[in-house]
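Thread: Aldehyde dehydrogenase, structure

OP (GT): Posting the sequence first so everyone is looking at the same thing. Length is 497 residues per the record. Can we get the structure tokens written out before standup tomorrow? I want them in the notebook alongside the other entries.
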Amino acid sequence: MTTLTRADWEQRARDLKIEGRAYINGEYTDAVSGETFECISPVDGRLLGKIASCDAADAQRAVDNARATFNSGVWSRLAPAKRKAVMIRFAGLLKQNAQELALLETLDMGKPISDSLGIDVPGAAQALSWSGEAIDKIYDEVAATPHDQLGLVTREPVGVVGAIVPWNFPLMMACWKLGPALSTGNSVILKPSEKSPLTAIRIAALAVEAGIPKGVLNVLPGYGHTVGKALALHMDVDTLVFTGSTKIAKQLMIYSGESNMKRVWLEAGGKSPNIVFADAPDLQAAAESAAGAIAFNQGEVCTAGSRLLVERSIKDTFLPLVIEALKTWKPGNPLDPSTTVGALVDTQQMNTVLSYIESGHTDGAKLVAGGKRILEETGGTYVEPTIFDGVSNAMKIAQEEIFGPVLSVITFDTAEEAVQIANDTPYGLAAAVWTRDISKAHLTAKALRAGSVWVNQYDGGDMTAPFGGFKQSGNGRDKSLHAFDKYTELKATWIKL
């Protein structure tokens, strides 16, 4: 494939046709109210298009349609091997349309085009194909029964799934849900973030093109307090899956209790510690990884390594390496393939990040890198990757999820102190440990209250490993075979022979 230049991408952006309508029962449709909202690109502030602003009336249409389609059995009772073939075709269509999807993703939420094309679209496609490949290889159980009894333990699709996904990895997070939800035979209503709805709207048509029956996948763009709330309160939505903030996750649990006790699976916030011991095998590699852990995707990552815990004896040696490594992560135009850091998703998020930087100053942390808005003349929302030294774990910048490229450096003296600081947070999504001592690595990993722990790397794993959090980072798991638990019900059938 010919490598595209910035000029190529900019031309494609000018030629791009934006679809902004909802997708219900295999057709693009306006919101019942006719209301729309503006989709503004953080790259340069341009208006990308008007997006359907769905509400409770649209949720009702989509749920009724999803339920009827589920009950018909056209997808829910299809042989697993046949659903597998369709899911693999769906994944293939994402790859065939990779450049369009990558461009939509970059224009919509500001990430570098090289990341959209090289990470997000392939990762989304893999999530669909991996789940599809697995579905006809998962066996049910026969209980250990007396000779005149037969106990069957079988899995069934839960029914209608509402999936609310975030704006930072819009396509990939959607497909982490769609892969197992669709493969197990459910009907799904996907609610993308109003900040980045474009790829979700586009792939709805690709799903039908792949052979997923109309009505199995519906997409409702709109706001959380309107259509998102309507789905969460709907009496005929069986399961709600969500990735986003802890604040909204808690609200969704309340809505479940106020409605039909729908199962609610939540992947929420994080304030992940990246622990570097003095005996780390390669300080240069650790420094480069620490820089990438906070700057990748503009720091808009739930697992961002936002707290760098450094053993005091190496702090003066290690921190300059991190500062130097961060210089390679410089914000630029996201349509330039050489750009490593793009724009924050919108003005609201940019102002939030800048307010946290101001809080770091106010609380007495020492700014040693970045800290400013840049490229303001472009009309986009760009903030320099930022490092604060001398941070106490009690400071606001160390306790709250910033969701931007702001790193807090905290020192420690012992492994026990490192674990205490690492666990002193409401969150428990991810953590990393750098040491050449295998016992220390294992003991520290065991002591960390986090759903993922990486040793001598940051952000390891693939579709075979479960992803999710402890504490207020949520419940349930995405990826791996464990994800299928969220989208199926266990049934015990006991037969007297």
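GT: Both are above now. Quick notes for whoever picks this up: The domain at 6-268 is CATH 3.40.605.10 (Aldehyde Dehydrogenase; Chain A, domain 1). The chain has a mean pLDDT of 98.
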